[in-house]
């Protein structure tokens, strides 16, 4: 039997494994260094309260991806689609009824997707604004007449005299929104995410992530939404940043990937958890032969041979582990200079009255220089299944940083205390009602588009020269892919393996098409 080594049990790796099982006679062997399936899309359980790392809306303009999701987790019968303004307490009541009639989680009616309303806001200068920005009387009143005039003037200026050569992300934003709107609602949050000024980020980041978003589209959507709410889960004619609803697993994104992992095992996949790849050996300069793996807590290694190698590990780590291939010095230099942005989230559990306002958002962007937090998630608004008790509120405060930062290196108690103080400082949280906290740190959450990325084509060309190696997913391709993009790269890889195709251009083209652009700075 032919075999494929798959490095990483995240969305890309598990999609590749399942597609190989379904469409070929190749046995996938998945190597995962963690103890959970899902990678960045895993769900962390904290005494029955569940954390979604970074927030993962299940939304795609690819019919193939949506069908794939619904194959594993079908849409709940009532779907909660008819009334997208349904209250949290009503959602929880319906959830409790379902739980009594369906029994324990497993292959039953609890393994479902919910259809969720999308709602997010921006916190700016002590006030909350709908995101995407709604040009309503309330918004105009909060901004003030002078501010609105500045928006209009700078936007008009950007349209009449645009920056001709967009070199930086700042150029990109100014051309589409005007300088005033960019500085108000985009600059601070984006710079928190990446840790560098927007003028140091390439315009290509914006062209990948927010190409279809501009004031014209926002205004058209706002007017349309006054008269019509789409119940189409695909929303193919809606810009991704403007979607009104999305699919979401009842118990968070990890429910999907645990389901895929279990199904793959049943079909013949081998999945090694708590295991790292510590070496890759080549037979020739264009063909890999084996990997060396090592179990956590063990000094022993094992060699596994295979016909195909699918990697979601960070590119820099992959090249460090390659043996038996001549790697040009320029490729090594480019790879070693690739940078990443790390991420941590603080889960804060509080009583129902611990939130000072009745927040209905999935998340809130903190567009304020004086607050270190970048975004706040409200897990109980994602799904009633994300909290153990209907009388609790469960939020996640997100911080973007580097593991070398002093903030990251503090102990968990200090980080959690800082998050609680920031949330009480902006009147979201009553610190006296906090019941428990959890700090989760994620290294290399975001492949960065500065530093060595400018020479990434050298690395890409070198990797493409290894015929049976297929980099996929976010870190595997050093690209800010979302879940559906990562899955599509895995599906395209299986297509290539079936066709005997070694040219990987079709894989790299995914998420360069207008169909797949996402909203600015989201962590999904």
What best-fitting shape do the alpha-carbon axes yield? globular
Quaternary arrangement of the chains shown?
single chain
Radius of gyration: 23 Å
Report on the biggest sheet.
Answer: 7 strands, mixed
Main sheet strand line-up: 7-6-16-17-18-15-19
Count of beta strands: 20
Which residue ranges are poorly predicted, with pLDDT under 50 across at least 5 consecutive positions? 80-107, 514-524
Strand content range? 15-25%
Q: Indicate the mean pLDDT.
A: 87
Which structural class should the secondary elements be placed in?
alpha/beta
Please estimate the helix content: 25-40%
N-end to C-end Cα span:
36 Å
Number of helices: 20
Walk me through this protein's architecture:
This protein is an alpha/beta fold. Helices cover 36% and strands 24% of the residues. The chain contains 20 helices and 20 strands. The longest helix is centred in the last third of the chain and has 17 residues. The C terminus is likely disordered.
